[in-house]
Structures are given as structure tokens and as C-alpha cells.
Amino acid sequence: MARGYDFNRIEVKWQEAWEAQRAFAVTEDPARPKYYCLEMYPYPSGKIHMGHVRNYSIGDVVARYLTMRGFNVLHPMGWDAFGFPAENAAFEHRVHPAKWTTDNIAYMRSQLHRMGFSYDWSREVACCDPSYYRWNQWFFLKLLERGLAYRGRAPVNWCEVCQSVLSNEQAEGGVCWRHTDTPVVQKDLEQWFLKITAYVEELLGDLESLTGWPERVRVMQRNWIGKSVGAEVDFPLADGGSLRIFTTRPDTLFGATFMVLAPEHPLALSLSAGTPQESTVRDVAARMRRADKTLRTDATAEKEGVFTGAYAVNPLTRERIPIWVANFVLMEYGTGAIMAVPAHDQRDFDFARLYRLPIRVVIQPPGEALGEGERLEAAYEGEGSMVNSGAFSGMPSEEGKLAICQFLEEQGIGKRAVNYRIRDWLISRQRYWGTPIPVIYCDACGSVPVPEQDLPVILPQDVAITMSGGSPLARVEDFVRTTCPACRRPARRETDTMDTFVDSSWYFLRFTSPHETTRPLDPAKVQYWMPVDQYIGGIEHAVLHLLYARFFTKVCRDLGLTTVSEPFTNLLTQGMVCKESYRCPEHGYRLPVEVDKHGRCTECQRPVEIGRTEKMSKSKRNVVDPDDLLERYGADTIRLFSLFAAPPEKDLEWSDEGVQGSFRFLTRVWRLVENRAAWIRAALDQSWDDGVHSDAVRALRRMTHQTIARVTRDLEDAFHFNTALAALMELLNALNKFQEELGADPPEAGDLAPPRRNRVLAFAEGVSALVTMLAPFAPHLAEEGWELLGHRESIFRQPWPVADAALAQADTVEVVVQVNGKVRSRQQVPRGTGEDRLRALALADPRIQPWTGGKAVRKVVVIPDKLINIVVAA
Prior knowledge:
With about 850 residues, the protein is an alpha+beta fold. The protein has 27 helices and 33 strands. The chain has a four-stranded parallel β-sheet, covered by helices on one side. Strands 6-5-7-17 form a four-stranded antiparallel β-sheet. It has a four-stranded mixed β-sheet with strand order 11-12-10-13.
């Protein structure tokens, strides 16, 4: 008796079966091709959201499909478990970060189990576990030995209330993200760095090999590295000393009419000291330093500057030029100082116009003259001929770059130079919930690394979490007080913890040997599994996480732990999940139920903005709860909708109707399988009748094999999950229509006489193919359906279906009809139509009569199934 699509029963049943069978646990198997599929692991925030569901559903389809293709698939999961949000939550909820994190992991793990993702949970890692962060500390010591970790001073965003360094994101708008009434200040602190710049050329050059990455991600990484070839030039200061600048355009040196310093530059304040501008420069520079650096360097951002009162001397023209401080120059680029050539740099041009500074043309475009600088409407930034450039005038600008660099070196006032935008990685954080940095400070010995045998340096649990006063670790005397390992005198521990990007920079390597206790990685296992074949995650991690992961992989290679130089062969950056938001001017974002039928807020009756589609976010009040959907529709429906609604790399717009449509489709599949399972079981041991197939049987078999070919192509080529699912929906429609051919009563096993046998076999072939190809998308339903069809082994132990090329061919083909080599018509004809028939059809085609009428046909060239060319007299 039909039971209907009871997704709760089905999903719980198969999740328990997979867990009991350890269905997704894998080990190294040299006899099988490996495939490492990985989604970026989550921060344990408390609950998974629809972005998680989409990301992990994409990875699960890939993993399950390739398992069915015969690959040995590694598909692990873990937790990016350190980080400041846990401290913030601990303070707000009066719970220890360790408990908050552990509880969240437990709940999110149960949610992922409920979704049926095919993770090898035996490899689970959590970065807050000492068995993991011990190796963070080990890596730090190895980097320290090689001079790749060092301590130095650096300007940082600093909140006086928190007594802590803030990231740029936490200092947005120049105020602390937790204390919005507290301005962020720049403060020089002793910090720990990792020398990523030692690998900068390799990080840049190896991008060319990453052909499986989106081009925009590679461009973002190139821009972040920011290699520039040019010259460093010393500009004498009018009152003594010099100012070094970096420029990519030494050919424009004669056009420099003023200098610009970054507000963070050491000379920004000292040059104005004792002048009437001193207080103004100090106040303006402080405000500039607080501004978001991304906004400061935006080409469209408003330019702002202040004159220091000091002058430099252009070393080539010998004229005095003013020195300004401006918001669009960063200390991180070059030397933090630039020569401004407003005629040939748009930012300099905008600034010069704003403050009425001189503009001098020194490069003329090919074939035209720019005229006087004051008459320019925009900067000319291209190449051309040098003018107003002394002995270099008349030179092509590219030639002039080399000539001026040679002149600078001969005069001892400059040199050729390569500059990078990227800076060494600052990993110090004045926070508690992170990996302790394994360094001890001794008054006699200085900085002393913790001996390897003393690792891990355990993060203490008995810590009071407050929102001010610097790192909580600094107040834990039992942690801070220790003994110098070199001289055995009293000493103190480093109380900074590591940036959490350290955790995520090698976790993918740890998954290959998560239980290794004598070293961070087992080289043999890394050799088998690495690199990751498919990495999946958000575009927001396109720069820092991926760059740091590439850096760590190269470090591990040089430590002899792996032989690979790049961690991720292919990268998919999935789009966001978006939904309409509703905003009331008085109350902000609200749920749709709080908007009345007139489009007004139910609380204040003010008109609301309706229909804005934005990323799902708690702050926008437009979040859809996966738990609620699981109860209403089941895991397979949620997975199916997230894969069908849009291509993986595009944003997905949430639709309640789309979810219901996915549920209806799965219900129809279930109904088909349940109602006709007896027919298919009866056909399991039957063979095809050699007699002629009916038209209906031929049509269904063609549809089945065409669908196999389409779905396989869509999964292999570019993860076109939405078009693959559309093909399965078409096959379902064809199977439902074909049921009329079967009759009412199912046959007994072995009681299938021809031609009925072929009809049942064609139907069984189609249903089996449908269920098998649906398995990566809706694994619970597919497992249950496969069992219902009479199979004992898991559907994921079945080989992926292979299309019969002959059966997949269409019955008709399009044949191009030409007259004297020019296309004049196209005809749909039965495949395999003979040459004589094709010739007759072409000559009788009314669409070619205007081109052949009244003319002698000299010959007709026929290429069967492709082309007919009629040659007529001119």
C-alpha cells in the first residue's frame, strides 16, 4: 500500500544507516584515483544558515557524483573555532568562550548530519583543540628558525577602551565597532609578523598555473600583491635631509609639481612642527588615519589634503615644490610618499585642481599635443613622447624610463626598484580566544622560543572575559609567569594570540592526517590526497585566506611535509543567497508579516521600502531558518532548491514558491517509484527482446540516454546543476507519460512476454537512470527509491550510468542546403536519409527555388546528415 513521500522517516533512516556503515570514511587507496573535495569550513556561530546550506550542497553533489564515478573521494569537515566573536558572545551571555564554541559546534554538527552531507566525520578538526593549535605553534617556531617570523613595530588600529588592536573591518568609519563613541587611533606597537613577502614572486608567478580558478580571483590576488616596477628617487628637502619616493613613471619626473605624504608617514607631522600649519596638519592627519583605507584609495573618493609648510626640491628641475599630506596616499605602498605629476595621473590631477596647484605636461600623446597643463580636462596617463624634459625631450616615454633611471643611478639620487603592495602578515592579536604565541620574554636572554617538547602552550580556561583592558591573558598570573628555558630565571609569556587566519591557512592539509601526533602532517598521506581538487567557498575569502593558504602550502613544501606548491587545483566561488528586505524609516528592517496590506509598518504606519533584494542577514531581518524548512519539506528539498534556483557562481534569490516546486518534483518522483516499483523489480533479471521496439519504447530509450548524456556533461564541465536538474524533470515527465504503455496490473516476476517485456524494460531503465542521477542531489530519496526497486546495496556503490551514443542520437538531423556555396535553406530530415532522397528534397525545397529556377543544375554534392550543395550555372 502506498505510503506517500514521508521525508522525515526516509531521511532519518538513511542518515542512521550511513553513520552505522561509516559510508563516507575513506583511506588512501593507490589503486583508485583520488578526489579531494572541500568546502571552506565554518565558524561555529550557533546555527547554519542558507549560505552554508548552498555551499555544502554544492560540495556534496560533487563528492557523491565522483564517488559514483569510481573516485576515492575525501570530503571532510571541521570548525574555524577560534576568534573574537566567541569572546564577545561570552561577555554578552556570561558563558566561557570554550563552552560557547563547543555547544555551537555540537548543534551545528547535528544540523549538518540532518542535511545528509557526505562528510568523513572521522577526520573532524576544531582549531580550538590543543591537538590542532599545538601545530600552529610548531609552525611558528619553524618559521622563527628560518627568519620567516619576526617581531617589529607597526602602526595598528587601536581602541583605547578595548586596549586592543582592531582589524580594518572593526575600525570602519574611524570608530571602534563595539564602542561607536570611541575614535580609533593609530598606535605603533611591537607585533609578530610572518614574512610572506619572502615568497612574493612565487605567489605572484604561480597564479598563472591556477587555470581552474576564476579569473577575477586571480586578478584580485595580483592586485593585492601589487607588483610595480619603477624607480626610487631621493628628493632633497629645502631645509635639509631628503625624502625618498617610489614611482612607476620615472619618465614624468620633470612634471612633478608637488609632493604628497601619507598621513601615517613619519615626516607628516615633523615637517610642520613649529609652523603655523602644525595644529591643522596634526588634526587633519589624525582624522585621515582613522578613515577606511579602502575608501581612501577609491578613485572616486573625494580628495583631501593639507599643506605641511615644507618644500622639497625636484632633483631634475631644481625647483622648490610644496609637500602636502593627503588621504589618497597609503604608507603601505612604496615609501608612503609620492611625487605628484598632475598632468599624467588622474588622482594627482583632481587634487591639483582642488587646491590650485601647478600642472605641467611632460608627455605628449602620439599624433597630438596636449597644450598647457591648466587647460587640460583630465590627466593623460598613456605613453607618448617626452616634452619639457630637458635633455630627455623627444624620447619615447618607454625609452625615457630607462634613460632617466640610468641617469638617477649615475647621479646617486635614485635607482631602479621593484615595489609590492603586499606587506608581511601581522599575526599578533591582543585577545584571548586564539592560539598562544610560543615565546617567552626573559630580562637576561630577551625573546626565547618555547622548546618544541613543551608544546602545546595551553590556552588557560580560568580567564575572566571583559570588554576592556587588553588581552585577558595578561591578567592570568599562572599563565604569564614562567621560567626562561635558556637560563632558568623567572620570565613571562607572550600574551598575544595568533590571528585566526593562521588556523585556516593549513587546515586542509591537516584533514589528510588528522590523528597524526608526532608531526603536523603525515607526508605520505599528504602526497596521496593533495592538492585539493575542488575548493568551494565565498568570494569574500578571495584574497587573504587564499593567499595565506598558498603561503603556508609553500612553507610546508620547504619543510618537507608536502611536495605540492599550490593547495587548490580548482576553485568555485559560489554566489550569495538573497531575499527581499523590508525597511521602515523608523524601525529599520522587519519581516514581511510586519508590513500591512497598504505597505505600511504595522507599528508606526509609515510607508516601508518593499522589494529590495539583499544578502540574507540577521541585520536585514530577512533570514530563512533551515531548521524550519527541514521540518516542513525535508533536507532533500532544501538541497534541491539551492542547487536548481541558480548556477552555483551566481546569487540565488530566495523564493518560497521555488522551494514548494522542488518539493512537488521530489513528491512526483517518489510517487512514480512507489507506484511502479513492482514492475521494475519484475524486470530486474529480464533481457531485451530482439524484436523491433515500438515507437514509444524507442522514444523513451532515446530520452533516457540523452538525459544521461546531458546530466553527465553538466556535472563534468562546469557544475551546471540547474540545467542537470531541468533535464531530470523532463525525463520524469516522459516516464509519467509512458506509464500508459504499461497497463494496469504489474506482471509476476518472470512473466514478461514480448513485446510487453521491452516496454517494461524501457520504463525500468528510465526510472533506474532517473533515481541514480538524482542521488547526488537528493540522496535520501534516491537511497530509499533504489531499495524499493529491489536493490540491496547503497545506490552510491552503483556506477554512474553511461549513455549509449547510438541510442542518444536524435531521430532527425538538420541538413544545410546551399546554392553555389551559400546557405539558402535548412531541412529537418530523418537521420540516415539516403543521398538520392536528400537530393530530391533539396531540389523540391520552395525556399531555394528563387536561386535555382530557370538555371541549369550542374551537380548536387551531398554529405549525408550534414549538407547539400547545389551547383547551378551562373
